[in-house]
Amino acid sequence: MSSLFDRLISLFRGTPRLAPAELQAAFRSHYKDFRALLTANNNALELMAEMEQALGAGQPFGMAFIRGNCTALSVNIYKMIHHLTRLADGRYGELDQPFRAITKQLEQVIASKHVNTEGANILPMAEVDASTVDQVGEKMANLGEARNRIGLRTPDGFVITATAARQFIEANDLQVEINRRLKGLDIDNLEELYTVSAGIQGLISNAPLPAELEEAILGHHQQLDTAPEAELLVALRSSALGEDSSNISFAGQYRTQLNVSREFVTQAYKEIVAGKYKSQAIVYRQQRGFRHQDVHMCVGCLRMVDAAISGVMYSRAPDDPRSPFVIIQAAPGLASTVVDGSAASEQLRVSRTAPYPIVHRASATEQSQTLTEPQAAELATVGVRLEEHFGTPQDIEWSIDRAGLLYILQSRPLGHSVSEEVRESSKHSATPNDLPAPVLSGGVCASQGVGYGPVFTVRSSLDLLRFPKGAVLVIETPYPDWASLLNRAVAVVSETGQMAAHLATVAREFGIPAIFGMHQALATLENNSLVTVDATAGKVYEGRVEPLLALAPPKPNLMAGSPVYKILTEALVHITPLNLTDPASPFFRPEGCQTLHDLTRFCHEKAVVEMFTFGERYGFDDKAAKQLVVENSPAQWWVIDLDDGFTPDFDPESRYVHLGHITSVPMQAIWQGMMAFPWAGPPPVSLGGLGSIIFQSTRNPSLDPGVRSAMAAKNYFLISKNFCNLSVRLGYHFALVEANLGEFLTENYVSFQFKGGAADENRRLLRIRLISEILNEFGFRVEQKVDAMTARIEKKPGPSLLERLRVLGYLLIHTRQIDMVMADQGMAANYREKIMADLHTLMDIPTEG
Amino acid sequence: MTQPLNILLIDDEIDFVETTGKRLIRRGYSAKTALTCAEGLEIIASGWPEVVVLDVMLPDRDGMDCLREIKGKWPTLPVIMLTGHASMETGLHGLECGASDYCLKPIDLETLVEKIAIAHRESRAPGA
User: Fold this and answer.
1) Interface test with B, best of A71, A106, A110, A180 (most B CBs within 10 A)
2) CA distance to partner chain B, nearest, from residue A798 (Å)
3) Residue A370 and residue A463 share a domain
4) Which helix (H) or strand (E) holds A407?
5) DSSP percent split of chain A into helix, strand, coil, nearest 5
6) Residue A100 shares a structural domain with residue A153
7) Which of A483, A489, A646, A734 could form a disulfide with A280 if both were Cys (CB 3.0 to 4.6 A apart)?
8) Structural domain span for residue A751
9) B122, A107: Cβ pair inside 8 Å?
């Protein structure tokens, strides 16, 4: 270290204001803050990118993700401000104000409550309608609408409200324990998921109800008991708050208990509340962006209908929102047999216009014909009426009792898996010709689309645990329990079941192609064999059928529209927009920082300037910047050593530094990239033009513009052994390369900024696009804003970052004049090819230093 | 690493401290664990730890309180806050009280090890 010490003393000798030892300490302290600031900047930018990606990619994330990232982000920005004020000897303290203001807004966004659960713990059905939705959940609110606003027949009963569920959980102080168990749960680890889920459900089912609540439930139950000759049986139906909102249905995710007698009512209630934590519900909420705490389990307690025929009705075909038919599935007995996929039912298509004739009827046998024509017509009338009332196609559960009276058990928006545009486009694209012969054909399309993957048969819960990601789920019966596999499956083939099954609803929402009622599926499809499932056409092929896969519509973004998605969107408003783009602008000030991104940008820019002007403030003489000497001739590049960027034998008195004295690993890599290929000559269209002049200027001192004082006039490397910040101002361009390659991955990064160009705007844009594409191919995360771009890559090991630096070095030299030829697309393509070939050669150069 | 770094983990989640401690030792660090703030302070008073990893929620007292006491008595000892309950408010408060970093559980060991090493390096660098 003594050489560094000596060097610093000599550097400061020109205008001694501090004692040498003090100067050295000050300098090293500043460098330490600078390095810490860069690391915090690195972390902050990575966190922001992660949040933006989460929003775009439709990957599941929860509140923990948002809260965690916002916290980590604010912590890192706090650090940046802290280190900048130290670097700047106390200046920039006013950054605290915008920082506090932004974090306060963020906290409000995160804390925002999206549901309200104050009110009575029981509401009779007569008082339930859409206005009570925050108390009774959407399923029951819709049923109340059907009963009290439309005047349809629904079973008598009452709702045990969200308030009741909250009282129950609070009385037993369960939420803390539940949150503890859910914390850090990896929903992809199915075994862990099932263990945690079962544990939480046990916790809730075994806890006692508050006495007051138990009395209230049994009291209301008593009032339903009006026919003393028969035992009163009720159905308990879950009605989770938020479950049917914005076309998101938790189909089959929660329990419904049928034929419950009086002594089991309270236990059944607790089990339904516990069902909030069924494994598939946990997964579902996480994928769809519901916060567990925002989902409240309301429970409808309804008199059982003594059903002769039951079923499901869609007011429109699920795959066509403009279809002129109501679709009815009917089976003898209870509706649940149709919904859980276990009964062979008949399917009817009934016209939506009076007199509502049956257009088509598909039954397994003559005997299984269940509905009469008047019944079908009555159902269709009700279906159309419900759709009119709710303003959107409905998915309706119904029963007809032994007296022939029609009861509506449930009505909710019909889920559509793909947007209309996608559906339209897939309709127009005809089925490709020359397809191989399918191995299976038939069934019904439960969810449209095409999927490819290895077959995996699931027969038991054990198979469930082993189900691999990306496999085709093959089952005998579409039980709702299999829903937790749908985020891992690429397609579903079931031997039985109808499109009314809950599993079909969920498959449509997830955009997973599914064929139900495909006979012989289990016998034909061997485990691990690769198949292509064309659910739209009801066919399964051996191997990969590319023409069909090319037709597959994109998967819907499952998170879009969910409460957590909304919160992240609102949070990002305060985080990612970048308003401070131009350091020369009068708005580039602490007061101008409106987002966390602005703060990072401001702190980083000022930190670099502070390091740059350290010498000025502390009395470096102008010898601090050494002119780089390459092959014995001075080049137009200057180098400032921040710490240990020169070899110990370097003479600090010298005005020049030879390339051989540079120990900075990232600078050497950039230089390698710059010099690896000689410039092939000016592009043909601008022979002797600006490009070649700029290039010349980098090697010929006589072309130095001669502006000495301002940092803007020269090309500077600020270096240490592990660090390099290179600002290049060549003609009309500005480029900044910055890199740190240290012993910790946390601190490693390469960033690149590029702006401007001499040619007209169109060509500049084309060039930026070309550079963006190339950098993308080399793994950079690229952002482009008009004619400015930034590219970053972080937390990667040194060797891979050195490769990236050589790429940037190359691009700095070789793309400068490209905009001159950019008007010609063909020529641009040629350049791109040449550049990529050069870059791949560069990759093979062994790393130096 | 010439001398293994001495790391103290203060956290009442027994599973977490024990496995993390063991994994740090397997990586060549020296690690001790404490389940309460009082226990942790005792070990710190012995002069042993070089880096402290502190949970925000402790059974005997508020972790932030514990942090304040540590930084009051041993201002140069780096303390990394680690918590399962993310909150911007406590995160910033922790830094204001002198914490080197504020991290969220679950954290992978790789990241934690780097944070510990960086906090230690910063605490020893001049001008700290």
Assistant:
1) A71
2) 15
3) no
4) strand A406-413
5) 45, 20, 35
6) no
7) A483
8) 622-843
9) no
